[in-house]
């Protein structure tokens, strides 16, 4: 059994490491070498693919990703934290709570294309197409149910005595929430915030459908759009893909532990 | 002192509670804000802004989707008035030859990813159960791949699986094949390739969920079973699996919902092709709406795929209830 487990571990490492290795390798390989032999390991490294990526404004796309994913995560938390708290501390005989939870779970199950079609029309009517606020509004709508479902159990763990003590000291509902309750759930905030950033920086379908100008595209949408532009320029495509993974890498380096916790919580992606 | 503003019913209710004195004190202090203190414990109103947002940006659009599915909506009138056309859109989509292919592909994709997630996920989770340096490397890589943007994973595999890509080059150089396998171009292979790529990205999630459930299996039960003469396979079947059952159910639902989202990979890797070989229901809806600009028809297809998702959700709720009783 132990040998089998070791063999499976080695297979897992190879299955996940080798493709990533080739992603990085190809991004440094001149495209004529890729076309001649895509698997060859000996070549003169070149930065041409990266240079052209920077010339084509990859930095602007990275800034867009940070703005879009950062705002989405912040707005989701601003709306999701009070909502999760409200659902966790509503009077249990309030029949609206189970109904609210059912709505959240159903919204969580809706495939993205089902919301894409009507949101295109709704955002268009409200004058939000072609702008970041419209895209962020759509991303928040997609991720808010997930945020609330994940955060609610954290508030359930806050002892009611603490809130009562705060009330004794004369703190109002909102002060109690901001000063007493929120600091107690900061683990949840980090975990869910990390997941929100990763998920919204990977989103590209809303981005390519709701933004009209490719100059506005975030990294993921830029990578998705490369297909038509570079039918065969694999090294350019791989370089852009490597650069599009940098935000993930940073978040991964900073928050691997909270990611693992988030996944174990039953996070949906 | 407090009686001047607290209705008797509230006093009676509070009198039964243990922290009566705390509530009394709170009432006393919160005298200027009677509503605030009276409602200590009910914070339901905090949920209102979040739900107002969801009504505007999630529920209202879904309502519009249903209206659209029963109306004649194209790019010409999407922002204007919609004429109702009864079941015309549903007829149009179900008569489309791509519809049958999409339904079959969707079901095949969902079933395959479910199997990959549960079976391969269990095997992988058992292999990385104990902490070791190799385990940490494997888990770190897997979590990183899970977190990668789907477009990156999709384009990477599009390169690796292309006709003169790395996979074919390696297979040819070791003599396993003598001509390239058309992973993404062959009609029968393309869907399988999509499933494998999607499985590559979803396996880390399944593995981690199952691994954390494995950690909770009581060690003394496993030891008792082995004292009773149970082998490794017997222990797994009779002790571990029953403990994992609730986790498997939750994971199954998440895998099914996730399989519907393979849309991003299909969009990037095959674009639905060759022909309609890798169409799924969400992809067909996208094509109808954003490439043919038949928003009504795309909405009808979306409504049908929503029905499948909700059907699965209800089946899940029903099974859970039966399991519990």
If you had to describe this structure to a student in words, what would you say it looks like?
The complex is a heterodimer of chains A (269) and B (325). Helices cover 78% and strands 0% of the residues of chain A. With 269 residues, chain A is mainly alpha-helical. Chain A has 2 domains: 1-46, no CATH class; 61-264, MetI-like fold, CATH 1.10.3720. Chain A is globular, with a radius of gyration of 23 Å. The two termini of chain A are 32 Å apart. In chain B, strands 1-2 form a two-stranded antiparallel sheet. Chain B has helices at 8-15, 20-29, 34-38, 48-69, 88-95, 97-127, 133-147, 150-160, 166-173, 187-214, 219-227, 232-260, 263-269, 281-290, 295-324; strands spanning 71-72, 83-84. Chain B is globular, with a radius of gyration of 28 Å. Chain B folds into 2 domains: 8-42, no CATH class; 88-324, MetI-like (MetI-like fold). At the A-B interface, helix 1, helix 4, helix 5, helix 6 and helix 7 of A face helix 2, helix 4, helix 6, helix 7 and helix 8 of B.
């Amino acid at each position: 059994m132990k040998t089998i487990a070791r063999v499976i571990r080695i297979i897992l490492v190879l299955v996940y490491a080798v493709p990533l290795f080739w992603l990085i390798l190809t991004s440094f390989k001149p495209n004529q070498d890729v076309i001649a032999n895509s698997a060859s390991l000996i070549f003169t490294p070149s930065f041409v693919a990266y240079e052209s990526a920077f010339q084509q404004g990859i930095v602007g796309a990275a800034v867009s990703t940070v703005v879009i994913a950062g705002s989405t995560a912040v707005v989701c938390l601003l709306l999701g934290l009070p909502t999760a708290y409200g659902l966790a501390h509503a009077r249990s005989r309030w029949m609206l709570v189970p109904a609210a939870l059912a709505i959240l779970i159903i919204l969580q199950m809706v495939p993205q294309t089902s919301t894409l079609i009507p949101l295109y029309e709704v955002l268009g009517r409200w004058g939000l197409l072609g702008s970041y606020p419209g895209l962020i509004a759509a991303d928040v709508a997609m991720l808010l149910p997930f945020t609330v479902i994940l955060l609610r159990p954290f508030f359930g763990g806050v002892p009611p005595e603490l809130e009562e003590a705060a009330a004794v000291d004369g703190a109002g509902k909102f002060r109690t929430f901001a000063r007493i309750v929120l600091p107690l759930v900061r683990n949840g905030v980090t975990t869910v915030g990390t997941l929100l950033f990763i998920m919204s920086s990977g989103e590209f379908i809303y981005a390519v459908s709701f933004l009209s100008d490719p100059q506005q595209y975030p990294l993921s949408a830029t990578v998705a759009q490369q297909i038509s532009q570079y039918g065969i320029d694999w090294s350019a495509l791989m370089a852009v893909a490597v650069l599009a993974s940098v935000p993930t890498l940073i978040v991964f380096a900073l928050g691997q532990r909270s990611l693992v916790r988030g996944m174990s919580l039953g996070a949906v992606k | 002192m407090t009686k001047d503003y607290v209705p008797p019913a509230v006093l009676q209710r509070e009198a039964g509670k243990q922290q009566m004195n705390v509530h009394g004190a709170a009432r006393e202090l919160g005298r200027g804000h009677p509503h605030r203190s009276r409602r200590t414990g009910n914070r339901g109103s905090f949920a209102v802004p979040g739900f107002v947002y969801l009504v505007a940006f999630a529920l209202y659009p879904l309502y519009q989707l249903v209206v659209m599915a029963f109306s004649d909506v194209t790019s010409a009138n999407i922002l204007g008035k919609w004429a109702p056309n009864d079941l015309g859109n549903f007829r149009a989509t179900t008569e489309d030859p791509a519809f049958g292919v999409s339904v079959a592909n969707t079901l095949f994709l969902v079933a395959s990813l479910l199997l990959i997630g549960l079976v391969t996920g269990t095997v992988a989770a058992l292999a990385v159960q104990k902490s070791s340096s190799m385990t940490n490397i494997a888990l770190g890589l897997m979590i990183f791949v899970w977190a990668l943007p789907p477009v990156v994973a999709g384009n990477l595999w599009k390169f690796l699986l292309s006709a003169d890509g790395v996979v074919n080059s390696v297979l040819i150089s070791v003599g396993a094949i003598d001509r390239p396998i058309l992973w993404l171009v062959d009609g029968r292979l393309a869907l399988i390739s999509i499933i494998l790529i999607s499985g590559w990205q979803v396996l880390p999630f399944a593995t981690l969920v199952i691994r954390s459930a494995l950690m909770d299996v009581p060690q003394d039960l496993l030891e008792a079973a082995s004292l009773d003469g149970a082998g490794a396979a017997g222990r797994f079947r009779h002790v571990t699996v029953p403990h994992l059952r609730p986790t498997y159910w939750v994971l199954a639902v998440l895998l099914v919902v996730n399989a519907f989202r393979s849309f991003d990979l299909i969009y990037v890797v095959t674009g639905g092709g060759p022909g309609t070989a890798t169409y799924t229901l969400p992809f067909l809806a996208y094509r109808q709406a954003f490439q043919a600009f038949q928003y009504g028809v795309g909405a009808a297809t979306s409504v049908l795929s929503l029905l499948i998702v909700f059907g699965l959700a209800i089946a899940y709720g029903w099974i859970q209830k039966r399991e519990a009783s």
